[in-house]
Amino acid sequence: GKQSELEINSVIQEQTREIDSLRKVYLNHPKDEDIINLLIDKYLLIDQDSNALVLTDELIFLQNKLQDHNEVARIRVLKHDILMRLGKGEEGILVLMKNIENQDKISSQNLTDTYSEMAAYYTSTYEIEKALEYAKKSEKIYMISHDSIGLAYTYYAIAISYLTVDRLQESLEYFEKAYLYCTSERYRNTAIILINISLIMSDLNRNDEALEKLRIVDSIAAKHEIINLIPEIKKLYGIVYYNKQDYDKSLSYCLQGIKLAANLTVNARYKSSINKYAGYNYYKKGEYDQAVYFLQQALNNDEYLVDLYEANDASEYPLIDAYAKIGHFKDAYDLL
Predict the structure, then answer these.
(1) 130 in helix, strand or coil?
(2) Nearest C-alpha neighbor of 53 from the set 32, 67, 36, 33
């Protein structure tokens, strides 16, 4: 990792100070759109999505008064993106439908951005054909307008659609297209695309290539202080080294990620995933007490986590087996 825990905490404090300062300006100038947009960006950077969402409603209210249909459409797309991050996609799709209803009043740019967001929503609901239909609509318009950022986003949406149904080779192809079109100033998007490329490469047993991509992500996150990606990067190093059967190195990264996550906003899915890999490493090393602790943490953090019980070459049920190895037969039996 490029940044120490001390450096990361220092950056978090600095970003929090910036937000506090901007909030003071906003309270004195509540109708200043530039300040509101800047504040939304800062909130999203440190995963304060709920605060960002409130401000999108402020912007929509202001722009509706000015009857600026294009700006309202742009903010609706942003609002949908935030609602998706908050797990409220059904609410978000209703916001996007307003853009579709008013498509004769908005620019082709905003319409294609809307199509891309709809593709993202239908991917999240596993309606892959619908997702691809909207993604292809936006691709067509972006190709005509030579919009590289739009194309990057569209290819990303298509890649996620394929990833959702485990079509890894096609997903990788579109993530690599997205990376090709992603411009250098979109460093956060670039990092997220590379994270996905790395993960798929590791799933395809191309672990050395996966590590190469991760090192690029690591340097981007450090250079641009994308603090909320650091735990994810640690986790991915953990996964790749686990797949390479380097359990000591994998465990080291997993434990770093768990420690960092305590100081940052991360979701339960992240906690379950990184604890799972920490547990798997301890299991492989024969340290069953620790394996039980971390695998149980994984289970506690995510009601949707099913792959604790999927085949794992040393044992079909690592958590159950680890409980049995330390003599906790009742706990093992309860999980059957």
Answers:
(1) helix
(2) 36
